[in-house]
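Hello again,

I reread your note about wanting to compare the complex against the isolated chains. To keep things tidy I'm splitting this into two emails, and this first one only covers the full assembly. Below are the input lines as submitted, including protein chains and any nucleic acid or small-molecule components. They are followed by the predicted structure of everything together. The single-chain runs will come separately.
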Amino acid sequence: MTFSVLVEVQLRPGISDPQGQTIERALPNLGYEGVSEVRVGKSMRFAVDAADEAAARAQVDELCQKVLTNPVIEDAIITVEPT
Amino acid sequence: MTKVGVVVFPGTNCEADVIESVRALGGEAEMVWHGDASLPAVDAVVIPGGFAHGDYLRPGAIAQFSAIMGAVKEFADKGGPVVGICNGFQVLTETGLLPGALQKNAGLKFLCQPAELRVATTNSALTSAAEVGQTLHIPINHFEGNFTCSPDTLAQLHDEDRVVVTYVDNPNGSMGDIAGVCNQGRNVVGLMPHPERASNALLGSEDGNVMFTSLLQSALTNA
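Full-complex prediction:
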């Protein structure tokens, strides 16, 4: 089966996010008040062939640990759906 | 004669400067291609600056899987001196040979400027010929040089005297003003500043030479 995968990479809580901070600081200048906790990450989409959803998820977990994220500073939110 | 292997990835751009700096001090140096699975007979390894594999995904993220890195890890595990400069530091943290990570600079500016450093320990492959507290003027040239780690790791680095050099005026937000760290064996060192760009009076500073002198001494001990 082929599964469509979405990996959202975010900086771990407590890790400073210079991009998020810069965006947050810029928003009031544009007239947007009340926006806080801006965190910038990146998302990756790809397809995985696996026997079932659990196997697909296990493979993506491993990929995230090994290459797609730097576990020292980043976390991944993984979404796996059958196509 | 002591020989330094300088690893070249696609996108590395400081290899010639490192080789020149080593040769000027009487050492031998040769380039080592990232796709080779083994190191030639060298006494030390330098991973120079640049943009290995285009810095795609994250700086050093793809480079950690280049064939040569297996040999570099083995060399380091046996106590061989390994130094990562700038992008090389990023490669060594991604590889897990050094702790922490290099985040985007606080302020989000690419910084290319002189930096004033302070030697924090002389117990490392890169600073054995220096003095603790010595001030060195060595340029930085990076966008992702903001050293980041967990509070526990930071405490451990300080407890174990593994912070090698610090910034006098922190330019990039690095935790603990850290510009360079070493591993527990003290033979693997990474730093963001470029000592090869401070290796001749014509470049404005010769302060980087004490680092290459230290490296050649460490290499000699290892040889």
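For quick reference: Chain A has one domain: 2-82.

B.
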